[in-house]
Amino acid sequence: MRIALAGLATSHPYTDARTLARHAELVVWEQDPDRLRRFTDEHPGAEVASSLAGLLATAPDGVVLTVPNPQAPQALEAVLETGAPVFMNKPAAASRAQLEALDRLEITDRVLSSSVLRFAPAFTAAKIDPEAVLSVRATVRHDVGIWATGYNPWQDTPGEGGGTMVTMGVHGVELLVALLGPQVRLAGAAGAIRHYDGLRSEDTGVMALRWDSGVTGTVEIIGVSESEAYTVTVHTREGSSEIVIEGGDDVLKGLGYEGTVEAFLAMVGGAPSPVPWAQTRAILDVLVTAREAVPA
After folding, report:
1. Has the keyword Repressor been applied to this entry (predicted)?
2. Contact 53/78 with Cβ under 8 angstroms?
3. 108 and 142 housed in the same domain
4. Cβ count within 10 A of residue 237
5. Are residues 129 and 21 in the same domain?
6. 241 and 127 inside one domain
7. Residues 104 and 140 grouped into a single domain
8. Cis peptide before 13, with omega less than 30 degrees from 0?
9. What residues have CB less than 8 Å from 204, skipping those under 6 apart?
């Protein structure tokens, strides 16, 4: 089996590759020579392609797509033409123009794009009856201080990678949509810089959501944090319960990276995406609308 890594624009494909290398031969393409060198140092046996077209010409059995968001629609279109299943690292779109470009593509059940947290054991083991839910809250704790140093500036730029509201907010919105479904809209959003003055976006944010069922929800984004953790609080008539997602002793398993790769490899074996594109599209619309509501 051959898996292609189309781009290494964020940390995620490096993490994905550590699991994928146990199952498949790897072929990689990346525009930045330093990022590519970091990858080949860890995976010296990986085949290197000089372009996206060259990568796809190797006839991979599956593709992990991770390019800067402005390039993502065009890159996904090229991958779709091969017919290979694709895992598109989050977020698939970070602006209205990018989302509209994705809408023009024929996206089938051979495309998976999701926060890895959806596949975290603590989340998949949770038993929640949506009919009993009154309201929900997702709290995302993930430090964004590295962006204040100038690292990956496109991610921190609202019109390109969406900034903290989109890139970190996707984790919270993903979990809540996974629980309650895609019939959701943004009711309001706010963001601020509380600590990292060098940012182009924000280091704290909040979104208010409302489902067609009447359930309300909030997503809190804490981008100033000494630890990484994600909590979903579910409020019912009987009381409140929490789902806590942490890396623990095995980060790849605890945060859902392994589960995501397993889902992707099942797609390589012929299974449809476990996350319907309708859910991904709803998540992206909430995030883009929140970004528009909180300009930089």
Report:
1. no
2. yes
3. no
4. 7
5. no
6. yes
7. no
8. no
9. 164, 191, 192, 193, 194, 221, 222, 223, 224
Please indicate, yes or no, if residue 142 is contained in any of the structural domains: yes
Range of the domain at 86: 2-112
Judge whether 238 lies within some domain: yes
**pLDDT tens readout for residues 80-139:** 999 999 999 999 999 999 999 999 999 999 999 999 999 999 999 999 999 999 999 999
CA distance 240 to 267: 36
Tokens coding 54: 């060259």
38 and 66 both lie in a single domain: yes
What is the rounded distance in angstroms from the CA atom of residue 14 to the CA atom of residue 23? 15
User: Which residues pair with residue 217 across a beta bridge?
Assistant: 136, 209
From the number of C-beta atoms within 10 Å of its C-beta (0-12, 13-18, 19+), residue 14 rates as middle
Say what angle helices 33-42 and 12-20 make with each other, to 10 degrees: 30
- For residues 89 and 116, the answer to whether their CB atoms sit within 8 Å is no
78 — phi, psi (to 5°)?
-65, -40
Tokens read off for 175:
């979990």
**Is 186 found in the same domain as 76?**
no
Q: Are residues 75 and 101 in the same domain?
A: yes
- Say what the pTM is: 0.97
Residue type present at position 271: A
